[in-house]
Every structure is written in structure tokens, then in C-alpha cells.
Design brief:
The structure is a homodimer of 719-residue chains. With 719 residues, the first copy, chain A, is α/β, with parallel strands linked by helices. Helices cover 39% and strands 20% of the residues of chain A. Chain A has 4 domains: 290 residues, Rossmann fold; 160 residues, Rossmann fold (3-Layer(aba) Sandwich), CATH 3.40.50.261; 182 residues, ATP-grasp fold, B domain (D-amino Acid Aminotransferase, Chain A, domain 1, 2-Layer Sandwich), CATH 3.30.470.20; 78 residues, Dna Ligase, domain 1. Chain A is built from 25 helices and 30 strands. In chain A, the strands form 6 sheets. A 7-stranded mixed sheet of chain A has the order 9-8-11-10-12-13-14, with helices on both faces. In chain A, strands 15, 16, 17, 18, 19 and 20 form a 6-stranded parallel sheet that branches. In chain A, helix 6 runs parallel beside helix 7 and helix 22 crosses helix 24. Chain A is flat. In chain A, 53% of the residues are buried. At the A-B interface, helix 5, helix 8, helix 11, helix 16 and helix 21 of A face helix 5, helix 8, helix 11, helix 16 and helix 21 of B.
């Protein structure tokens, strides 16, 4: 199927169905752009009312076109699109780009038409861009296709861009000249009925002119597919993405805008992280970062050397480096000594290296070369304030010459110069990125480093543990039989235990002797709770006794409990007691699983107890997760420091905590109908450091569960 | 003394001591800039080796100048500066600007020379800019002074800027043409030996051409003075500031750069907040924000209407609005109805208002006017992607025309157009700010709103409570007599109590009967702790018993304690016990006072217990604090939700918690030598909601305390 994409992106011939002479219509602008950008193939304007358009012979119908057509661009009113598609089929055209609007984006009626359109296109074995899209661009010299209705012609480069917003694509093409970046290909997916972001990711994986991929997304249509592809591609080609609709209001706007299910930013954010996609939040940030990737190798570490002729910007760069998670490189003594040999005595050779305002051009050259040679330096930031006669273009040229000779380390230039410098530099070929402000450059560097870390990241495994699936299934079946989608705490804990998760030990005891026996098995201290179908408010009658430290105390408390019940005439209400392990520990974590209607199961881990809502110190990942995903997830919460024993407690058994999450992952893979699962708290034992599930709550999707288990041989419930 | 500043900023005559014909020297560039910017006063180049410079008569010495001189600009080698100052005095010149470097910034020797220079200048009744500065600029038509060595001439405007980094000033002047903002005055303070940022704040307070003030600071030389001035001025003229040296490494670079005490970002950040200064972190952000202040009234609320011809940027703007703390305005039904009457049926009239790509110019006009009339809208953001024939300059002109007629609401334009539009717009007079990206505009709007909130903020009071100062003094004196700067927990608690802070009740008891008596007074539950000079590890021998609920239990525990001691042969070691109130409550806060060597006492409040270090959920303010400062401080921590009872606990008595901080503030005002004070935890009682100091720790500066109390009549210790 990707072969047809070649016909769309690199067509040998194009028909524009709806080509126009009027340059204020979309059909007119597209034709004009194709001609002006000097498309190398054959071009057939189709228009029933014209013999000639823009000097080209026009055809009444696509069927009149003499030769083969690789790509048909359709720019006619919506209701005429269907006939056009039929005619394209008659003409054996497989590549279709529907610019026409009036489909899913306008509501239900449009969505139905779009579905019909899709079915038609599929039945003909075609592939379709759009509908409601802004067109496609391929800047390769042997193609030169600008089939968009942008105001400005594209700039050639090594970056492919797919936009879910046509207008945003237009805006970016407007800005491209100033952005100092060029496109290999541009693709507006429009309503993405057929070709989606995921399709283009796969297509660009081996596209030779594309070295990095930019995405603007309002929704991720197929998260699992996206993750699989992105994970693979991002190790070779950086993927930088805007996913808008972060806020609830933004998501609602996105949803009404694209007609697609949006929102769920927690899930989207997790998915992008797991897939190695570099997320940015604005168009300017996207292009600042893209510039760095176009011009820099990824650094082998995070130690940045800052070179400046001006103290203030040097300090601001230092602040930005520290705040971005990068580090100020510790310059080698020998390098410092060398720099002292030529720099002004008032200069500072300690990073940030302040050569002071009077530094001439050759101080830049010598110092950059010295920093390249210094193995304590992973990346170099050259700040220049043009004054006292220093010429910014000379500094830029000198820096680029050194980069040419030493391409191995990223060098970025912060040129605090007027716009005329940038207009000049945008006209020549460059091999380093130029930024006007230190903070922008530092952010770009930090993303380069994130890419390095991603390329170094191990693949990760999805371990498969030996568990008692049958037991878990039995418990769920029993609940379903009783018409419940919500499992009881005990049922939930039993399922967790069946999946090898360390749960708080407990046992039922019908009388005091049993209670003593169970408590001795569990080991003191224990908690005793009454079980009674008649008493609902257990704490009110003192039915929960914590901190029982010995057999003697247990017997006394049991007796006292009976006395209390008797005094209220409730002696018959006692069915027995639960004897439960009492886990001592101040560190309460939470872990669990939530379900996003689009992304599926989300694994969650973080700080539990009374702080969950207030601090929201929780991390999420989309299931399935690997051991590496889980490790990163656990390390990403602030409470990780507590796990390490920041306050003098014994360190938590972090491996066991990670395993807990991986076992939960296996559980919800086995039972995909689990809707919600909460372990809160997962208490870190002060004795062993283990994470122990003290409370558990599982809810299933009743209908899905019934369907899934209905077809299975259900073992009888095991409690 | 401010009169002399008039002579410096608006001189009728200038002498340049060290003027040069060479345009690659500072003396040459300054002269060139003064001439090229068409200075309106008299100009006297001073150079012993020239008769004429740049067509002006040159003088061998300042003493040869025939007329009066308001301002002498000194650009000669450091060691010649002193004689020049003497001569200036002879000539009765009061305004001095020392460009020459080689003073404090180069180390100890330079600092000593700078001190001498300052003394000389002061003894002559002069005021001095610099040394080691970049010069001054005044763009007023009747002055036209550009006494800087920037590469480009200044742009006139309503903004005054003081820069602590000369080179940064140079960079900004380079960028000014693109920044779409102009200066009323520019002032490079250099080493700020005499004239400091604070001086300029005061000077600009009533300067008629200045409507807003920008600051670049690496250190705040006089925090108390700065706060006092900024607080007053910022209500009339917005103050936007970069304070660099935020990171430890940045602070260290700032320190070596400016030779001044820097760092302490926590204190600086607090001070700026308390003073109504709008803090930004980069030069571009500073100018983006300054553009908004130059062109917009402050909004009366935070409800933003977003108007766009392009969905994607509208969604991104919505995300940014929500994330910045602003709100998406709920458009009135009647406004929506009106918009529906002319907008395309595919348009969305729900905020963000998406007029869709085909919207013509008059849709912009009508909709902006409708949003101005809608009282649910406080600010308007107009996003335009120029395509399909819409002309950005026409949209800009139309928007500005409406703004002219309706200046009451802030309107900002997001024009996603190529650089040529910006070059054009920068040439004409504008009344709205233009940004290329939605996020930038939203950030600027959020700062406008912050300014509105600041102007509405009540002044606040520093309440004075009736306290037992003598008792506190006595306790401290006793400790000093014993040679201790660290007070014991009991001493600390007693001092807090003397200042009316709710502390955990406790009492000493020498025997079991006393213990019972005290426990009955305090009320159960209580904690019992042994006091013994011989036993250091009290917990090891079970010397701390918590949760004693009754007299009977107290007697039993006391006996058990004696038995334990006896069994170890320690029965004689018991001096008695402390009976302490047991405060029940899960919410543990921390509050206290730290001392910054430059900013003085910092009040602190936040989440305490085991989370202090991990979550750093603490807020700081520089003392003295008002009741409003404290209220904001308490509300700014995330744990505020816990205080409100987010988890179903009773709400904390927040007024009492605030009063606790205010009383601490009074305590450290009374005893300025207190170095550190910690209440950790300040436990929120589940019974009363009060914050109760369960543990306290006070440390004084021994020498300062001795000096302060030595001169006082010390009452005898009251415990």
C-alpha cells in the first residue's frame, strides 16, 4: 500500500479536478503553486468550462486526459467528489488528494458522507489524502511538487512535516523563510479518513531525503500503532511533535474542530514519552528544536561549555542550562591554562567563559577549537554580542568553518544581533543553528541530549510471570454471576495475590482460637476487624482494632469486642473476624490502572495516601509497558526520593515495586475488561522495604467481562 | 540629589574626556553616537593630542572648556580617572559618567580603587554613573542623548531600561529595531558604585516620558530600599525585571562577574513578588511583555476571547490560556447569535471563535467589535493566518482602527505571517502588540493581568501583637550566659509561647503525682518523656511513651518506666518527666525564619514532616511582611488544599496559621539577631484546626545577640 504513497508524494503526472483560472480560489492557488514551484511531471487541469488554464490545455473531465495519472487532486464542491472518484477509478488512478471540505468536520451528516467516501476509495484500492486538507509538498529536485494553497512557496530541507491542521500548515509555510529550516516533504492529513499520521511515519521511515520528522497532532488516531512505529523510527530519525488540546478547553476545541476523540492529555503525554517522541508546546519551539537537529550531531553527554563576550548573557545561559537539566561543563585545567595564554587578563576562563567585550575574532576561533578538544565538554554554545567592532557575520563564518572541520560536537550560536544579520544568514547554507537568545539555544540543546538518551535507552522487555490466572478468572466470574462489576476489597486483594503481588496478609477466623492461630501464622502486630452482614458501621462499635502486639492482647481484645457487642444486644451479629497483617511504614504509594477510551489501559504510580490529589505526584504509561518504561515511571515521581530513603528510612525494595507494576500490567493484559484498578496505599514496609498492597479495588466493564468470560471454561470460584 | 540626575540624563552640555577620532575605540564610538543621534546640547571633546575631532573643536583639558558642563563622560585609562575627577570638580561639574573599566570587576585591588573613587566623588557632591558602564541614553526630542557605545542608534518609546550588564544593554540596543519597542531612557549602571538600580527607580517614578520600567539585575544591592520603591512605583508604572543568577552556577558566574554578592534566588524571587515586580526569565520574554504594556490597558479580569481563522492555532492558544492561569471567556449568547448572523455556517462561535479559513476582512472587524461590546470578555486575542487572499496588513490596520475607537480593552494580534510583515509593521506607529505565535501573546496577556491584580491588591498591614518580649529576652540572655547560640527545644517553645504562638502544652513533673496533676491540666491524650542528664538515648530505654489516654494508664506507664530503669540500674538517673499535650492530626506544616546575608530575614511556610525536602512545597517572603504578604504566601503552597480540608478533615484555622507567621515576623523584628527559627511540625489539630507548634528550634547569632542584649537591661530568666 505504501507504493501508492509514492504516487502521491512523487507523482509523474497530476490532474487537478477543479483547477481554476481565478487566483482567489483554492483550485486556482494550487494550480499556481504547482506551476510556480516548477513541478517536473505532467500537469492536467480539469475544468468543464475552460479549454485552457494558465497556458495549459484543460480537460472537461478526467476521462479525457490522454496519458496516465498518478495523483488526482480534487478541489470541487463536496457533493461532486463522489462522481469524480468513480471517474478516477475508471481512469485507474490510485492516488487521491481531496481538498474539498464539508465532511466529518461539519458534524454527523458530514461524517456519514466521509465514511461513504472512504468505503468507495477503499473498494477501488486507492489511497486518499484528506478530505478537508491543505495538500502535499515534496521538494526533491526531481519532483518539485507544491500541491498546497499556501501563500508562499516551500523551502527545501531535510525535515518532513505532517500537520493535522491545514491552516497551521499554511501558517508554517508562511513562516518558513524566517525559520531557517526547510522541508523534504509536507503532508496535510486533513480529516485523515484514510492516510493518517501513522501512515506517514511509516512512509518516511526509509524516505532518503528525510532526516527528521515533525508532527502537529490534535488527536492520535491509533495510539498503539503510533507508539510501535514511533518507537522504531525515533531511534533513527528524531520525531518532534506538538500534541495540542492539552487543556480541557483546548481539548474540547480540538474535538469540535477535528470531529475526533481528543483530550486525554495524560495518556498522550505518556505515549509520546514511551515512544521517544520529543514533545514541544509551540510552533516556534518546534522549529527552534528542528533547527538544532538539522545542524547538530546528538551530544554524547550533557556538559555544556558556554563561551561569551558578554557577562550578562553568559549568566542567563548558565541559569537556563542548570534549569533544563543540562550541566555546566567542568573545563579541563589544561584548557584553562591554554585560554589564559591569549585571553585578556580580565577574562574569566571558568565556564561560562567570559572573553569580555573586547575579544577579537581570533579569540573566538582559538577558544571554540580548545573546547572541541576538551573531552570534558559535550556541547558548545557560542554567545556573541556584536559591539566594539566585532562583526557577527565574521564570527558566524569562523564558527561554521570550525564546525566543518570538527563535525563531532554540537555547536550552537547565540548571535544577539539585529534582524538584518538573520536575514543575511538565512540566505546562505549553514551547518550550525543560530538563535537570538541564550534560553532558546539551551532548550534546543536539551532536546538534542534527550534524543541521545533515547538512542542509548535499552529496548526493554515485557516480562511474563507465572501467575494463577484461573483463580483470578474464577473470582471475577463469581462477581459477575452476582451481577457485580465492582469487586470487594477481599476479592481484589485475592486477585492481586493470584498475580504474585505482595498483599497484606489476612485470614478469616470464626472464633477466638482460630483468630489466635491465624495471627500466629501472620505474625504480630496484627489488625482485627469484625465481619458481619448485620453491622454496617464497624468503626462505631469499635469493630476495627489496630496494633495488636501479642496473643494475650488478641484474646483480651476479642473478649472486649464480644462484651461491646453484647452490651448492644448484637452478640449474634458477629460472623467472625478478619485478622490482618499490620504493615508499619510512613511511605504510602499508589499504583493502579485506569482506562482511557482511546488509549486503553494506563498504568499509574506515585505518591499515595492523603497527598494523591493535592500533589498529583503520579506518573502514567500506556500499557503494554516494558521493564524500562516502569523503571523510568518510578524514577520520574518526586516521591522516588522517599523510596530511596531520603529521610533515613530503609530504602524501599524498588525492584519489587517495579515488579508489582509489571504484574499489574500482565493482569490487565490478561483481563482487558478491567476498567479500574487501584492499590492505595501500596505501603512501603519499614521492616523489609517491600511495597505491600494494603487496600485494593478492582472494577470491570460488566458487559465486556461477561462477553470475554462467557466463552471461557470458568473454573469454580476459589474463595 | 536627584537634581544632579537631571544633569546626567538631560544635560545641556557634555564633555567627553577621552574623546577619540578612532571609531574602533569606545571614546570614538560614543562621540560618533552622540553626534549621529543629533544631541541638542553643547558637546566638548577633550583630548590632549587633538585640536579638532569629528569637526568639533577639541580641548586639551576639561579646564580649557569655555562654558558650563552638566555631564562629564570619562573614557580614559583607569589610573587617569582620579585626576580627571579632580579637574571636573574644579570646573564645578556634578554629573559624572565613568565608562572606564578596571575597578571592582577585576578583584580586590580594583574594588579598593573603586571605593576611593566613590569617596572622592561623594566629597565633591557629584553623582556618578559606573564605573565600568556602557553609558546613558535619553530619547526625548529636546535632548536626544545617545552616550553609549552601542552599534545601533536607539529607538524612541515610553520604556525606561536599566541594565546591570553593559554588554546586555548593547545586545538589546542591537535587537531594538526588531523588538518593536522604544526607550525613553536607558541607563547602564555598570559597577553601580554610586547610582544604583534603586536610584533610577526613584528617578523614573515621576519622569513624564517613562510609562514602564525594565530592569536587568544580577544582584539587588539594597533589597529593603528596592522593595520600598518598587512597591510604590509598580502600582503606577509596571516594572518588568530579569534577575539573573537563578541557578547556583549562574549565581557564581554573576558573583565573579559583578563582584557583588549575588545568588539567594529564593530571597530575590520573594522580594520581587512582594514588590509587584513582574519577573521574566529572558530578554525576549521581557520585550514581549513590554510590548503588551506599551500598547494595552490592563484587563479588568482574566477572561480571554480568542478569535481565529485557523483551528490549530486557536487550540494552541486555548491550551496556553488555560496553562497560564487565564480563562477562556464565556461568550454571551447574544454575541454568539450576532456572530452566527454573518459567519460561515462551518464557523464555531464558541470560544475559541473559529471563523474558518475563508473569513474575509469584515468578519474580523465585526467580530472584534462584538467582543469589545461583550462584558463577559476582558481581553481579545486576534489570530490570523494569512492565506486564501487575506492580507495581514489589512487585518492589522483594521484591528488598530477598532482599538483606536475602543481603547478600553486589551487587544493583541497573533499574526502568523512572514518576517516581511513584521518589518513593515515595525516601521509604522501601532497601538496593539503583534506576536508571531499564540503562546507568546498569551504569556504577555497573563502578565498584563498580573499587573491588574497587583494594582487591586490592598496595601496590607504589619500588625503589632501584645507579646511578652521581656520573657523572650530573658530566655535568650540565659542561653548566652551559658555560651550557647542554639536554644533548647523547651527554651524555643517558651519563646514562641511568649510571642503568643500556640505551642504544644507541656509541663515538667518530678514524680508520678505531679505527672498526674499536670496531665489532668493539659488533658488526655498526653506524651510522657523522661528528663535525665545522664541518659542520652531516651528512646532506647523506652523513655518516650505516646498515646497515654487516662490517669490509670499514666500511672501504669510511669511504674513500667521506673521498672525498666531499675532493671538497668538507672533508677537514680531519672530527674523527672515531661508531660506533653498529644496533638492529633495528619497535616504537618513547617514555618520558620531563615537569614540571607543580604536580604535579611526570610519568612518560610509550607508542607512539613517527611515531605519538606522531597516536595519543597514551601513559600518564602522577605521580612517585614504584611498580613497580605502572609495570606498570599499561605495560599501559594500546594498544601493549602490540605489546610482547606481537601480530604475531608476539618478545615485548618487559616487565620490563626497566618497569625502564627505574623507573630514570628514580629519576633525576629524584635530580635534581629535570630539566625534561624524552625517550627517543624506546625501540626494542624484534627480537633480544633489550629496550627500547633509541636517542635521548635531557635538559633541566634551569638556575637550580634551579645552586642544587642549587652546594652539592654536584661530581666532575669523567667523559667
Amino acid at each position: 500500500m505504501l507504493k501508492i504513497l509514492d504516487q502521491i508524494m512523487s507523482p509523474k503526472s497530476i490532474a487537478i479536478i477543479g483547477a481554476s483560472t481565478k487566483t482567489d480560489t483554492i483550485g486556482g492557488i494550487i494550480l499556481k503553486n504547482i506551476i510556480e514551484y516548477k513541478y517536473t511531471g505532467k500537469l492536467y487541469p480539469i475544468n468543464p468550462k475552460a479549454d485552457q488554464i494558465s497556458g495549459l490545455k484543460a480537460y472537461k473531465s478526467i476521462l479525457d486526459v490522454p496519458g496516465d495519472v498518478d495523483l488526482a487532486i480534487i478541489v470541487i464542491p463536496r457533493d461532486a467528489v463522489f462522481t469524480a472518484i468513480d471517474q478516477c477509478n475508471e481512469k485507474d488512478i490510485k492516488g487521491i488528494c481531496v481538498i474539498s471540505a464539508g465532511f466529518k468536520e461539519i458534524g454527523k451528516e458530514g461524517a456519514e458522507l466521509e465514511q461513504k467516501l472512504l468505503e468507495k476509495v477503499r473498494s477501488y484500492g486507492m489511497r486518499m489524502v484528506g478530505p478537508n486538507c491543505f495538500g502535499v509538498i515534496n521538494t526533491a529536485d526531481d519532483i518539485r511538487l507544491d500541491a498546497s494553497f499556501a501563500e508562499t512557496l516551500p523551502v527545501k530541507g531535510k525535515t518532513a512535516f505532517v500537520s493535522q491542521s491545514g491552516a497551521l500548515g499554511a501558517a508554517i509555510l508562511n513562516l518558513l523563510e524566517d525559520l531557517k529550516i526547510g522541508f523534504s516533504q509536507f503532508f496535510s492529513i486533513g480529516n485523515a479518513a484514510d492516510i493518517k499520521t501513522e501512515t506517514m511515519l511509516e512512509y518516511w521511515k526509509d524516505e532518503p531525503n528525510t532526516e527528521q520528522i515533525l508532527l502537529y497532532m490534535e488527536a492520535i488516531s491509533n495510539p498503539q500503532e503510533f507508539a510501535k512505529l514511533a518507537k522504531e523510527i525515533s531511534k533513527k530519525k528524531p520525531i518532534v511533535a506538538i500534541k495540542s488540546g492539552r487543556s480541557a478547553a483546548g481539548a474540547s476545541a480540538a474535538s469540535s474542530h477535528t470531529g475526533s476523540l481528543a483530550g486525554a492529555d495524560i495518556a498522550a503525554d505518556a505515549l509520546l514519552k514511551q515512544s521517544g517522541v520529543i514533545r514541544v508546546t509551540s510552533v516556534n519551539e518546534m522549529f527552534e528544536v528542528a533547527q538544532a537537529f538539522e545542524n547538530c550531531p546528538v551530544p554524547k553527554g550533557k556538559r555544556v561549555a558556554i563561551l561569551t563576550n558578554s557577562g550578562g548573557p553568559g549568566i542567563m545561559a548558565t541559569d537556563a542550562v542548570c534549569e533544563s537539566g543540562l550541566e555546566i561543563a567542568p573545563i579541563k585545567e589544561s584548557t584553562k591554562e591554554y585560554m589564559r595564554s591569549y585571553l585578556s587578563s580580565a577574562a574569566s576562563v571558568k565556564n561560562p567563559i567570559d572573553m569580555i567585550a573586547s575579544a577579537p575574532l581570533d579569540h573566538y576561533e582559538k577558544t571554540i577549537e580548545a573546547l572541541i578538544a576538551d573531552e570534558n565538554v559535550d556541547a558548545i554554545m557560542v554567545i556573541c554580542v556584536p559591539f566594539l567592532g566585532i562583526n557577527p557575520m565574521q564570527v558566524a563564518q569562523a564558527t561554521m568553518k570550525i564546525k566543518d572541520a570538527h563535525p563531532e560536537k554540537p555547536i550552537i550560536s547565540i548571535m544577539m544581533a539585529e534582524g538584518s544579520f538573520y536575514r543575511e544568514i538565512n540566505k546562505i547554507e549553514t551547518n550550525i543553528p543560530f538563535y537570538q537568545y541564550p534560553e532558546t539555544g539551551v532548550n534546543a540543546l536539551s532536546k538534542l541530549f534527550a534524543q541521545y538518551e533515547w538512542t542509548q535507552r535499552p529496548e526493554g522487555k515485557e516480562p511474563s510471570y507465572s501467575v494463577n490466572k484461573a483463580k483470578a478468572m474464577g473470582i471475577i466470574s463469581n462477581a459477575l454471576k452476582e451481577g457485580r462489576s465492582q469487586l470487594t476489597t477481599l476479592e481484589s486483594i485475592d486477585i492481586l495475590e493470584a498475580y504474585g503481588i505482595r498483599t497484606c496478609k489476612y485470614a478469616f477466623a470464626a472464633n477466638v482460637e482460630d483468630a489466635v492461630k491465624e495471627a500466629n501464622k501472620i505474625d504480630y502486630p496484627v489488625v482485627m476487624k469484625i465481619t458481619s452482614t448485620k453491622i454496617s458501621h464497624k468503626t462505631e462499635i469499635g469493630g476495627v482494632i489496630v496494633g495488636i502486639n501479642s496473643e494475650e492482647q488478641l484474646r483480651n481484645e476479642y473478649k472486649a469486642l464480644l462484651d461491646r457487642l453484647k452490651s448492644k444486644g448484637l452478640e449474634d451479629a458477629l460472623d467472625g473476624v478478619i485478622i490482618q497483617e499490620m504493615v508499619k511504614g510512613n511511605r504510602e504509594m499508589v499504583c493502579g490502572v485506569a482506562t482511557d477510551p482511546q488509549y486503553g489501559h494506563l498504568m499509574m504510580f506515585g505518591l499515595g495516601g492523603i497527598f494523591v490529589e493535592t500533589f498529583k505526584d503520579v506518573a502514567f504509561r500506556v500499557n503494554p509497558v516494558t521493564d524500562i518504561d516502569v523503571k523510568e515511571m518510578v524514577q520520574s515521581v518526586k516521591a522516588y526520593k522517599l523510596l530511596q530513603g531520603a529521610r533515613g528510612e530503609i530504602p524501599a525494595n524498588i525492584e519489587q515495586v517495579e515488579e508489582t507494576i509489571l504484574r499489574l500490567s500482565q493482569l490487565v493484559k490478561d483481563f482487558s475488561f478491567i476498567k479500574e484498578l487501584d492499590i492505595n496505599p501500596l505501603k512501603i514496609s519499614d521492616k523489609t522495604g517491600e511495597g505491600i498492597a494494603v487496600d485494593g479495588r478492582i472494577e470491570v466493564n460488566f458487559e465486556q467481562a461477561k462477553q470475554a468470560l462467557g466463552c471461557c471454561q470458568i473454573s469454580s470460584g476459589s474463595r
